[in-house]
Amino acid sequence: MFCSSLRKRREWANLPAALLSQQHPRWQEKQLETHDLAIPLPKSREGDFQEVFRLLLLSASDTQSSGTMMSRIERLYHQTGNHQVGIVFLLEEHASTANGTISYMELQASLLPAFEMPIIPLHSLPSSSISALQATLFAFQRQLVNTQKTTSSLMHPVNPITTLLPYCTLNPPLAENLRDILSDVSHSVQALEQAATTTGGRAVLQSLLPDQATYENITGFWEQEFFADK
Asked: What does pTM read for this prediction?
C-alpha cells in the first residue's frame, strides 16, 4: 500500500497513478500516519499474521527541510520500535540541482548510530515507468527473505554496507559473488564511493570484477552524481 500524500509531493506525484495501474502486485491507496509505502513480508508459516515493511520515500529536496524530515524519521522509528522500517532515497531528481548522492551519504551519516535502519538508494524514477522502483523493492524483499532464513530477527544490527551493496549499481541487484568482491575492498559505503570515483580505486575494481559491463554499472552509479557536476 502507499500513502495518498505522495500526490502532493513533486518528485513522487506520478507514482500513485503508476502503482494503481499495476495488475501484479495490486497496490492500495490509504492515508498512512507514519510512512509512505508498505510492502508485505513473507510469512514463516501458513496462518501467520501478515507483516509489512514500512518505508519513507525521501530525496535531496527533503533534506533541505531537515527538521521536517528528521521528525518523520524519528516518528516512524519510535512508533514501530524500529521494527521492519527503512528509507528509499531517490538519487536523481528531475526538478532539482541538488546532488542526490551527496545528500544520501549525509543522511546516512546523520542517522548512524542512533537510528539503525536501511537506506535503499533508488537511482531515478522516470515519470512514465515505475520499473526501477519495482526492481529495487523486489530486490529488497528477496534480501529480507534471505535475512529471515539466516537470523532469528531483523532487529539485529545490520552493517549498512551489507544492506546497501546490492543497490549500488545501475542494474540492481548485484549478485552475491559481486557483493562479496566489493565488500572485500570496501568496508563502508564511503569506501565504496572512493573506490568507484578515484583512479586507483577504479583500477582495483576493474582488476577484480569479472567483466566490463559490471565495472561500468558500478562506477556509473556513482559517476551519475559526482562527475556530472564537475
From this structure: 0.68
